[in-house]
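Table S7 (text form). Paired inputs.
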Amino acid sequence: MAAFFVRRLLHGFIVVALVATIVFVLIRAAPGDPFSGAMDDPSVTEAIREAWRHAYGLDRPIFEQFVSYVRSMFHGDLGFSILLKRPVVYVLRDALPNTLLLMSIGLVSGFLLGIEVAIAQVRNLGKKTDKILGGISITFFSIPDFWLALLIFVGLGYWLPGRIFPLGGVVDVVNYDNFGFWARAWDRITHLILPSLTLTLLYFPLFARHQRAALIDTLPSEYMTTARAKGVSESALIRKHALRNSLLPVVTLVGVAFPALFAGAVFVEKVFSWPGMGLRIVESIGGRDYPLLTASVIFASAFVVAGSILADVVHLWLDPRLRDDR
């Protein structure tokens, strides 16, 4: 088990290193640089632009820039954000907790909702309820992330009478400091509802479809037939027997879905102005902020690797047969 975990960590490190190298080269090989926007400003002379490029090391060959970046990265220095005028480490330190909070709530709520939808479908297998819930799942699974975020933003944030939900941000920047403890907690919750609801609706179909298929495969088993013969109710049969034995592939799916949420959070955070990693990635692309964009992509690839390793470890922990094979 320990040897397998070490191998997976080594493979993950190689993947992150390759991603970092490719991203570093590609964004610098593209036409222009972070200071191309200053070309239209007549007050910015060519000498000033060259001084900026020299200050950020952009006038050196790409290989020298990469070596310098790797050396600085191992010392905990991810560069200086050109757009935000702050060290990238501080930008990520402020943005990462917001993204993790949003992703965690979206993942847990999507998982629980998907399980309940799957159980409702299996209990009504082939009936109208099964078909309606299946159609709803496919619909939400097919809607693009940004489109669903815009629909919820407009429908529940703008058109809903009373404007119950804020339209963006983490807190009310005007009144938050004057709120008491419970008012601050409620303010954070209301700001969190719409973006987390969007991620929940985007990813619950993934768990629902897999769990439904797993339950259907489990129901004809011999131990299920024995439980029916003992007079176990259909509800207890599904929840206490079938669900427990069919949950393994869906649980491991959580580890794979967690990094996928990062990609969805990019659009959701942009629509709801949620100050997380997704919003910073969009800003760094628009502003050609090389240091911030490179560090953000490295972190995103690390999420993918961590999710994959987590899925493998959970699978081995839950299934001793695989543990013996490994």
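Next pair, protein 2 of 2.
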Amino acid sequence: MSNKESILQTLEVLYPINSAESWDRVGLVIDSKNEIYTNILLTVDVTKNVIEEAKNIGANLVISHHPLWVEEATTHSKMISDEALKANIDIYVIHTNGDKAVDGVNDCLTRALGLKNVLNFTDTDLARIGNFETPIETMQVVELLSRALPNTQGAIQVSGPLDAKISRVGVCAGSGGSLIEHAHKEKVDAYITSDLKHHMVLENKGLGGPILISLPHWASEYLWLPELNKQLMKLLTQKNVELKIFTYKTSTDPWDFSLGSKI
């Protein structure tokens, strides 16, 4: 068995492709027909700079959280796939199957907050619910997040009173606006996610919904990469597969500047 087969089997054990949402595009989305993987690069997004980094470190497998595309290729995703194929670099995606998995993207965010008794939302495994051991104020939650998240120009935003006491928390790393109604049903004190739309937040506030805390999308998901690195190293070592796994640490957040309140 080539190390490619061992690595792909390991990824499937950790994050089964069939657990992804039906619309999602996960697994080996770019296959350059490599039989041997040299090194691996982990990233939240695949960009031209990520492909350049892979070449520089001798990695011919990039594992990304975000797909290059879902339904059809865009001009940018086509450019990236062409760059990867030209450099003989495979791209493997772990997206909604990574959000759902135990020790996956959402679990890493709950751990950064120190939440206890963590469970899936009642009606979906795309989000988590947990509790602080003792209630803390909204601003303390923001301070926790500010310390835990990697630096980025994206802002942490709050809709709701900064001095409210928070115990029960809903968490969905990445774009979780579609799950606000689920957060209402779970009767959480706060719901933490990213990419919330204006009217959605306004309606939630008008209905007396939970406090909303919006995070920079990239930062909310980056916390998972070190955990993925550990998971892969452990299983590949057991299989006697020797290679290096690197993490792309440069922010791929597309925003270059923001101006707003500071803690």
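The chain has a mean pLDDT of 94.
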